[in-house]
Amino acid sequence: MSRPAAGGGRWVTTSPERLQRWLDGFAARHGAVVREFDERTVRLGAEDGALAEVEVPFPPLTGALVEHVLRDRRVGVLLARLGGCACGVFDGPRLVASKVTTRQVHRRSAAGGQSQQRFARRREGQVRVALDAFADTAVRVLLPEAATLDAVVTGGERTAVETVLGDSRLAPLRPLVTGRLLDGPDPRLAVLQASYEQMRAVWIRVVDP
């Protein structure tokens, strides 16, 4: 996978299992590599001027990079869109707890006048009920595990996720949130199960010479 990166270069992703092969290939293509690192980024400067910046998953970096990304962790996942919410706990690759909650929220109306105002109020009520229900789901699934989790990963619509996590009951989870906002369709069990590989992906910004 490759996409343009803000600030120049391009983003590529690889799985933890393929990271060492990617690093070896980078050195083979571009020459001797000098490494610099902090707890969140490993920078590889190659002999020919190429640069690769590896975004450390689940920071801070502990030990060697490849060992760090391959380590099994206990991770909570919160996926939220207005149509649904899925919460789960992964112990390594095993999904050991999960719950999916769906709520109907009507799309925005293009009508005008009083009917539009009534529709907007009704939709606002639906959104509020949905997000409250999603927070209840997170409280039920994630909150009891907060002390056991290495991290919490989120996905879906940023506003929905932030509203759910803004519930005062979920304050213990907020310091654990890490990584990129995962993308995907309306949360369902299959989407939650697929989030395991997505949250483990290693993102690398590559600047060619």
Can you put this structure into words, describing what you see?
The protein is α+β, with helices and mostly antiparallel strands. The chain has 2 domains: 2-70 and 201-207, no CATH class; 74-199, eRF1 domain 2 (Nucleotidyltransferase, domain 5), CATH 3.30.420.60. 32% of the residues lie in helices and 29% in strands. The protein contains 5 helices and 10 strands. It has helices at 19-30, 65-70, 113-141, 158-165, 189-200; strands at residues 2-4, 10-14, 33-37, 41-46, 51-55, 74-81, 84-91, 94-102, 151-156, 202-207. Strands 1-2-10-5-4-3 form a 6-stranded antiparallel β-sheet, with helices on one face. It has a 4-stranded mixed β-sheet with strand order 8-7-6-9, sandwiched between helices. A hairpin with a 2-residue loop joins strand 7 and strand 8. Helix 3 (113-141) packs across helix 4. The chain is elongated. 25% of the residues are buried. The model is unreliable at 109-113 (pLDDT under 50).
